[in-house]
């Protein structure tokens, strides 16, 4: 079993956000295999997928296989996240009750006939069956850990008070009662609340896209990445929004905002050509790890060494988002880790070239601005550069202790 629990230190607002982001990442990252399966099946077998594109027509096999796309994203992935969240709080039993509790929230739109917000002016109707519901990722984030915590508190309250021979009976009935009760809570309370939150965020996101303001999110995203707050933003906002949008449109721009490897590549290229000479030999390996491996954290120390470079990352990231907005681009699933290989794997076949151009544009813009901010390498002291890099690496290591999620064998 793998433990994704990060070592979190410190206090204050940033530490709270880091803990929150790390906990969300701990629920999502163990289930990346399911996300990848969803992304691959979607990109290969949906009507506009690679298989039909190559065949020149919609094949019967691809039609049959594509039927699993909806259940994967609507049913399996939210349940896996709820189970993982519960198990992080209270082991396997916590995972079981967490998964059970999600069913109520999952079916709330059907049972309560909740009407989605119209995003295009057309009249909407409540879902008629489970086949019409959307992913309930936010509810999974809430109910999985919460239900497991309640079971944990119950077990602690009755510890040592149950007569011998009745422990298994009490444990199983307690799990069943708490899980069932929270499913009802999910149906009537958590489900409707998260439904309307998701609808509201979706409406806001749609407004940003339609008004061309979505690139402005880079003002928040790029500095947050350098401070290792990207998990809270990515898994807490962009992933749920992306899944919701992809379940309707087949792809989502929200999968592209934080995971774009372009800005990081631009930063590293600028440092390679115009950065302090003492650190240039360290850059090529970092470029490979970042761009091909998708480990964005590798370029954070370089930005921390020259904080003004965050401006280059913001403008480069915004340029990529603007390009993606203009051409209505999107990935069919989360690109995790955020490497160019993962991006290619979850790109719709008819958008691959435009998506790759978007990465190149964001990298190019970041590089140009980064080079200007670095003064094209002028007036750099090798000794000062070495000291700057050491200080930046120490600062980056401190941030990692607070929020980076590193797998380790349990």
Span of the ends, CA to CA: 6 Å
Q: Which stretches are low in confidence, meaning pLDDT under 50 for 5 or more residues running?
A: 1-6, 404-410
The proportion of residues forming helix, as a percent range, comes to: 55-70%
How many independent structural domains? 2
Number of strands: 2
Gyration radius from CA atoms, angstroms: 23 Å
Q: Determine the strand fraction and express it as a percent band.
A: under 5%
Morphology call: globular
Q: What is the residue-mean pLDDT, rounded to a whole number?
A: 84
Strand order of the largest sheet: 1-2
Number of helices: 17
The ordered H/E elements are: EHHHHHHHHHHHHHHHHHE
Largest sheet: 2 strands, antiparallel
The SS-based structural class is: mainly alpha
Summarize the structure.
This protein is an all-alpha fold. The protein has helices spanning 13-28, 32-45, 50-55, 60-65, 69-111, 137-158, 167-211, 218-226, 230-249, 254-257, 262-274, 283-291, 300-305, 309-326, 340-345, 352-373, 382-403, and strands at 2-3, 408-409. Strands 1-2 form a two-stranded antiparallel ribbon.
């Amino acid at each position: 079993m793998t433990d994704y629990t990060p070592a979190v230190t410190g206090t204050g607002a940033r530490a709270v956000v880091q803990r929150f982001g790390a906990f969300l990442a701990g629920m999502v990252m163990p289930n990346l295999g399911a996300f990848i399966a969803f992304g691959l099946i979607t990109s290969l077998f949906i009507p506009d997928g690679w298989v039909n594109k190559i065949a020149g027509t919609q094949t019967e096999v691809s039609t049959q296989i594509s039927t699993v796309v909806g259940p994967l994203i609507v049913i399996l992935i939210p349940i896996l996240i709820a189970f993982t969240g519960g198990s992080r709080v209270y082991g396997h039993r916590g995972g079981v009750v967490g998964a059970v509790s999600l069913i109520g929230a999952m079916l709330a739109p059907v049972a309560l006939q909740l009407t989605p917000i119209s995003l295009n002016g057309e009249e909407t109707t409540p879902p008629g069956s489970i086949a019409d519901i959307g992913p309930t990722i936010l509810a999974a984030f809430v109910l999985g850990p919460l239900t497991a915590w309640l079971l944990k508190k119950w077990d602690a309250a009755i510890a040592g008070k149950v007569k011998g021979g009745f422990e298994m009976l009490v444990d199983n009935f307690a799990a069943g009662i708490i899980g069932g009760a929270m499913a009802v809570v999910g149906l009537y309370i958590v489900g409707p609340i998260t439904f309307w939150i998701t609808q509201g965020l979706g409406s806001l996101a749609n407004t940003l896209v339609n008004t061309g303001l979505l690139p402005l999110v880079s003002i928040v995203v790029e500095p947050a990445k350098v401070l290792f707050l990207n998990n809270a933003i990515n898994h807490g906002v962009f992933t749920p929004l992306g899944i919701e949008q992809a379940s309707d449109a087949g792809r989502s721009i929200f999968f592209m905002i934080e995971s774009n490897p372009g800005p990081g590549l631009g930063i590293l290229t600028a440092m390679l050509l115009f950065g302090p000479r003492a650190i240039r030999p360290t850059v090529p390996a970092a470029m490979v790890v970042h761009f091909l491996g998708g480990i964005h954290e590798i370029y954070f120390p370089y930005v921390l060494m020259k904080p003004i470079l965050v401006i280059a990352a913001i403008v480069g990231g915004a340029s990529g988002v603007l390009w993606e907005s203009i051409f209505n681009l999107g990935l069919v699933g989360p690109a995790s880790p955020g490497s160019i290989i993962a991006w290619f794997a979850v790109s719709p076949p008819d958008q691959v070239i435009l998506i790759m151009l978007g990465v190149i544009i964001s990298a190019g813009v970041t590089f140009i601005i980064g080079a200007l901010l670095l003064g094209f390498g002028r007036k750099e002291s090798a000794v000062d550069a070495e000291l700057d890099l050491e200080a930046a690496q120490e600062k980056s290591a401190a941030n990692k202790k607070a929020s980076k999620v590193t797998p380790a064998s349990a």
